[in-house]
Amino acid sequence: MPTRIAFLGPEGTYGEQAAHALIDLDSLTEPVLMPCVGLRAVVDCLAACECDAAVVPVENSVEGGVTATLDALWSHPDLCIRRALVLPIRHALVSDGPLDGITEVLSHPQALAQCSGWLAKHLPEALQLPTTSTAEAARMVVGSRFRAAIASRQAGQGHDLKELAYPVNDVVGNRTRFLLLRREGRRDSGDVATLGFSLHRNAPGALLEALGCLAKHDLNMSRIESRPSKRELGEYVFFIDVDLPGDSSDPLQDLLSDLSPLCEHLAHFGAYPSTELN
Tens of pLDDT along 60-106? Predict the structure, then answer.
């Protein structure tokens, strides 16, 4: 049976690059890639059983957490993370026109933010227009002499666009972490585990008490993100990544047991291996 894998489309996105790498790492059989419009649609596609796996970005080394992915995961706590991949991000400025004629730059909001310094220096008067993905931006500038896209080199080459500058990201070590999501197969051992939780009350020391459970079991928290609960102002949900020692599931199970009574909702997205590409 083919394995249907949803990703942020169209073809040529960094999500597609990550999907190909994760297919190899997880030995997925007969992969069929399914491009989606918007990150929420990628996760919803998996939750609705319209595909077998999904690949989404969750964190960028420059711009931080990808909020659309975090919000979608909180809406679908039954999904699990099977694997993570850290992908180097090298943006190019591509167009059918010359650099000195560019008045509009299109790209995904994260890519625009990652290149804000370069744009301020080289195209300070250009209007910056957000798109659903970097590859969609490349598609939208085809044939235009005044529009340029920030996208991968592959996306530009796929549309026969000229490469006006490369790389244009402000930070040389720009990297994005992608997740491979499934509906089943949650693990309790791996390199890292991801949890999401909301607290019973917004009171002094409530979050500190919850995070104290990690210190109690000598576990390192490698990431924490907060997102509005969307129920009322000042109420938040939290996402944490926990580094796990060895192959034993005991430390994670002990953490979950201590953390659960302190939380209104606790989502365990699983433990998983993480790989970094050069």
Answer: 998 889 999 999 999 999 999 999 999 999 999 999 999 999 999 99
* CATH number reported for the structural domain that contains residue 44 in this entry: 3.40.190.10
Domain that holds residue 111: 92-165
Dump the DSSP string for the chain. --EEEEEESSTTSHHHHHHHHHHHHTT-SSEEEEEESSHHHHHHHHHTTSSSEEEEEEEETTTEE-HHHHHHHHH-TT-EEEEEEEEE---EEEESS-GGG--EEEE-HHHHHHTHHHHHHH-TTPEEEE-S-HHHHHHHTTT-SSEEEEE-HHHHHHTT-EEEES---S-TT-EEEEEEEESS---S-SSEEEEEEEES---TTHHHHHHHHHHHTT-EEEEEEEEE-SSSTT-EEEEEEEE--TT-SHHHHHHHHHHGGGEEEEEEEEEE-EEE--
pTM: 0.89
Domains held by the chain: number: 3
Taking the C-alpha atoms of residue 48 and residue 254, their distance in angstroms, rounded to an integer, is 32
Angle at the Cα of 223 from the Cα atoms of 220 and 229, rounded to 5 degrees? 125
Whether the link from the prior residue into 124 is cis, omega within 30° of 0, is no
